[in-house]
Amino acid sequence: MVMVEDISQKMEGNSVCSKTAVYFMISFRQLCIVTVSLPLCALLICFVTAYIFQQDDIHETHCRVYNVIPSISAITGVSPQRYLWRVCVAFHIGPRVIIASMYHTYYHSLLSSQSPGPSHPGSRGYRLLNIAYWLSLVEIAALCGVTYISNRENYPVHEKIFMVFMFGSLSYMLATIKVFKLVKPNMSDAEKNSYLIKKCLFATSIVSTVGLCVFFLKHRLLCHDMAFSWFSFCEYLIASANMAFHMTVVLDFPTEQLIVARGSPGMVLVDSSTAPQVQQQQDHHWKPEVSTLRPIHFWFVALAGEKNGEYYIVFKVLFS
């Protein structure tokens, strides 16, 4: 078990330390990769299996014209593929909410740390940040909607929720790019790379969305051959760009950890093997000795506790 020392309380120039136990710690980078890989792998499996074994079902459209590429709704709406898709999206949603909350807290702290002046975004920056956060939640909710209300079960509702998803996804991308530029006026090379990738993926999504609308109208109104295949191709491009956009979180938080711990949030990480030495230092003038695990910019911490017989978890972002 990793021990954590609380250095938030000070008394007469000396720090009064209380130990905090870390029960679970996982690389945030690994968590994000798994989160994005779930729908990606499920989509590939659904496509391959449905294309091989259920061609008649996935190519069926109201126009009954020639079609070679099925839509995402078609391959994830047939059985048994829809069960795999729904399970993977269910496991995908939870971390997505945590990532959205963490981005909001992180960007908010960067805005607060900027020096007041003409270049400070002020209330406009906070307002744009809140818009990006709520758009992210709208996108997540719409993803749940299009997943669990298939086009075969209720096409009118599925179609409208898909429109909400597209609006939320594109608006979130744009708002995130704007916020990223506001909170990081002087970017490092890694941050410039992340920013450029986000812009390219957003542009890909916009172009693909235009193509999707054009080919959908051609298919729906004119029943052109292959129009639905081009519509589906644009849909796959949009889905790929969306997943890649969310994958850029590993560029923004390459070394951070997700922690479940018990104790005070004002803490620094130390190795449990050095705990006796830390206690000995505490008896004299406290000088915290942080272990050389690896450099960490900040911690995203989930603190579990009990109060009046009720258990609770508090999420915090701590900067070192």
Descriptive overview:
By secondary structure, the protein is α+β, with helices and mostly antiparallel strands. Helix content is 59%, strand content 16%. The protein has ten helices and eight strands. It has helices at 28-53, 55-58, 72-75, 81-113, 123-148, 155-183, 189-222, 227-247, 249-252, 275-283; strands spanning 2-6, 9-11, 14-16, 19-27, 257-262, 267-270, 298-307, 310-319. Strands 6-1-4-5-7-8 form a six-stranded mixed β-sheet. A two-stranded antiparallel sheet has the order 2-3. A hairpin with a 2-residue loop joins strand 7 and strand 8. Helix 4 packs parallel to helix 6 (155-183) and helix 7 (189-222) packs antiparallel against helix 8. The longest helix has 34 residues, at 189-222. The chain starts with a strand and ends with a strand.
